[in-house]
Amino acid sequence: MSPRAACRLEALGFTDLYDYAAGKVDWLAHNLPTEGARADAPTAGSRLRHDVPTAMPDETITTIRARVDASPYGFALVLTADRTLLGRLRHADLAADSDTPAHEVMEPGPLTLRPHEALADIESDMRDHHLTYTIVTNPEGQLLGIVHSDDLRDTNATSFDEGSRSTGSGL
Hints:
- The protein has 171 residues and is of the alpha/beta class.
- The chain has helices at residues 3-11, 24-29, 61-69, 102-105, 119-128, 149-156, and strands at residues 54-55, 76-79, 85-89, 107-108, 112-113, 133-137, 143-148.
- It folds into two domains: 1-30, no CATH class; 44-156, CBS-domain, CATH 3.10.580.10.
C-alpha cells in the first residue's frame, strides 16, 4: 500500500495498517491468510501435511531411520535449525545401520513448490510424473510441509503411482 493510502486510511480511523512492500505473490508464497472471491480456492497451502520426518544435517542415518520407520513415510527431509530445506533422504539411503551423517548421503536441493499453487495444477503434475508427494516451501526455502497424493483424491478422486517430486522415480 502506498504511504498516501496508509495516511488516508489512518485518517478514516483504521489502526491495523501494514506496508507489505514485497507484494501479493510474496504474501501468498508465505501461505499467509487471504480474503476475497478466491480466498477459499484449494491450494497446496490448504492441504499441507506437517508430520513428515525431518533430520538435522549431522544426525546419523541410524537415528533418522528409526524416526522414518515410526512414520507413514519412507523418507526424511534434511533441514537446518531455521527449517531451511537442504535435502531429502530416500528409503534406500536409510537401509543400512550407519553413523554416517545425513548431509553426506542426502539428495541435495529437492524440487519444491509454493503454497499458493492451485491444487488442480499440482494434481495434473503429480499424475503426469507418477508422484506420490510434493514438498512445499516458502520463498526463503523453509519447509512448510508436503502435499500427498491421497490429499488430492479427496478433491478429484484421482489415483497416483509411487514417486517423488524431483525425479519422478519411486521412493
